[in-house]
Specification:
Shape: globular
CATH topology of one domain: Methane Monooxygenase Hydroxylase, Chain G, domain 1
Low-confidence stretches: 1-14
Strand content: 15-25%
């Protein structure tokens, strides 16, 4: 793909345009696709993606989608499992909606033709993952659930004439006038055009931010753009200290982390240290199926003790059918000469999921009028301090639809008063951006990673602030705008981690071990305002 390097304002003048739609959806993961699909029932929709439409965390999700659909299960049980995994920081009204409406959304998806894996009798095959007390994980094509679900919804979206898609279109700025979101400014990578999308409602579904870390399971697009832009626009952020590290990502020197689905442990795989010792049974009653924060921390500690990787082992299972059940993982491992069924698989935790995000109500409404958020970018209150495995795709289904139901009642679509400044591509600063991005990734991994303390967090914050000060006047250079986004997100994560003086869920402080009752609240941040707290909703 040819990307232009544009710094000439005379050229850019001819590459400015404005487009109007009823709904603007930013992000093409499952939450964005669902939102766009439902919004098309009520008007025209612009679906914007900064890469191809099928590149997202949702697309790469292996584990599946959780729903209390089995005969021995009930939404109340799913509800309790979610609260336990979330370490009592979940907003219970949001979780109530998740587990009940989620079941309806999954059945609705099946009725539209989505095919989940079934046995020879046509019954749904339900898997088990960490933190779940029942088998309730639906899969599609084994370990390719995210790919199958997003591909299914993408086909549905592309069939809707009301939806216009815009690929390689990066969000630059959320446009706010008189306290109301008017739309969003974007940059088209392919020709350098600045496109302003105006609508009565803007829905952010931009996904997570785990590519801020040097070791991550996420695609390269997951750099937290939506969260940064919402912060800059004045929206509230919540619980930014909670980053979930997936316990089992392939660890090969010089190679990117590759997710080894939690469903593999759900089928009985063991975690073995370099001395051949299975260590999880002595740490948690659920052993390898303990909640992710427990398993990730245990692996991290064991790696520090032994000085090497931990290993995932299926050798004791003697079950050849697992190679087909996890065919994508098996094929990937084979490319490195690793046999899924017979070899010890070297693994280590990797940044995986943003638990906090843009604070919303149960309808996806942010603190800014006409601006909505759903999916991983949003802090709806369902995840608490630690996401229960496979609840993320369910959250997309539930809150992608709920955001539209709230957004559609808006009738105001006032014209733009003052167009924003244009931003240009500039290849001359590409290397500077990459250098700073890599430095920030190392800072976040070293000092704001799985285990934290005050000294490390303060060291990280000082360097982040130093970098940010160099780019406080970005001008029109897109690379500099991206650096501001990165430093803004790294700062709010670090500040929130300093503020939470306890260890809870995905936030572990060696200087504040254990949970503290007085810390049982959401930490909210808003640009230009002091950090403040919000009580957990328990009804």
């Amino acid at each position: 793909m040819l990307l232009l390097s544009l710094i000439n304002p005379e050229i850019a003048y001819h590459l400015m345009e404005t487009r109007k739609f009823d709904f603007i959806v930013v992000g093409s993961g499952l939450a964005g696709l669902l939102a766009a699909y439902h919004a098309a029932d009520y008007g025209t929709v612009a679906l914007i993606s900064k890469s191809e439409l099928d590149i997202s965390n949702s697309y790469h999700a292996q584990g599946g989608i959780a729903a209390a659909i089995g005969d021995d299960d009930h939404p109340d049980i799913h509800f309790e499992d979610t609260l336990v995994a979330g370490r009592n920081l979940c907003d219970q009204d949001a979780v109530y909606l998740l587990v009940r409406e989620g079941l309806d959304r999954v059945r609705e998806l099946i009725s539209r033709g989505m095919e989940f894996d079934t046995d020879a009798d046509g019954q749904l095959i339900l898997g088990l993952e960490g933190g779940h007390s029942k088998r309730r994980i639906l899969h599609a094509d084994g370990d390719a659930t995210g790919k199958m679900m997003t591909s299914f919804m993408l086909r549905k979206v592309l069939d809707r004439p009301e939806i216009s898609t815009f690929e390689y279109c990066a969000a630059l700025k959320i446009i706010i006038e008189d306290g109301v979101c008017k739309g969003i400014q974007t940059l088209q990578y392919t020709d350098g055009a600045n496109i302003i999308f105006l609508g009565k409602a803007t829905i952010l579904a931009t996904g997570g931010l785990s590519r801020l870390y040097s070791r991550s399971t996420n695609p390269y697009t997951a750099t937290g753009d939506g969260i940064a832009l919402a912060w800059q626009a004045g929206a509230q952020l919540a619980d930014m200290e909670f980053i979930q590290f997936h316990p089992t990502a392939l660890s090969i020197t010089g190679e990117d982390a590759y997710l080894i689905s939690e469903a593999v442990r759900g089928e009985g795989a063991h975690l073995i240290d370099s001395n051949g010792i299975r260590f999880m049974p002595g740490i948690h009653p659920l052993a390898e199926l303990a909640p992710r924060d427990v398993v990730a921390s245990a692996i991290f500690k064991r790696m520090q003790e032994t000085g090497t990787n931990v290993f995932l082992s299926l050798k004791h299972l003697s079950n050849p059918s697992l190679a087909e059940r996890f065919h994508s993982i098996d094929a990937y491992l084979q490319s490195y000469g690793i046999n899924l069924l017979e070899d010890l698989i070297p693994i280590a935790p990797a940044a995986h999921y943003m638990v906090g995000g843009i604070r919303t109500d149960v309808w996806g409404q942010t603190s800014i009028e006409a601006l909505f958020a759903c999916g991983e970018v949003a802090a709806t209150g369902v995840m608490g301090a630690n996401r229960l495995a496979s609840n993320s795709l369910l959250e997309c289904l539930v809150f992608g639809k709920r955001a539209v139901e709230k957004a559609r009642v808006r009738v105001n679509n006032a014209p733009l008063i003052s167009p924003p400044q244009a931003v240009y591509l500039n290849a001359d600063t590409d290397q500077e951006y990459l250098s700073i991005k890599n430095e920030l990734a190392n800072i976040m991994s070293d000092q704001v990673g799985i285990v934290r303390d005050k000294a490390g967090l303060e060291t990280a914050l000082a360097r982040i602030e130093s970098i940010a000060a160099q780019f406080n006047n970005t001008g029109s250079d897109y690379n500099f705008h991206k650096i501001v986004n990165l430093t803004d997100i790294c700062r709010v994560i670090t500040l929130s981690a300093l503020e939470r003086k306890e260890s809870r869920g995905g936030h572990v402080r060696t200087d504040y071990p254990g949970e503290k009752e007085e810390q049982l609240h959401h930490i909210l941040q808003e640009k230009g305002k002091a950090i403040h707290y919000e009580a957990v909703r328990t009804t």
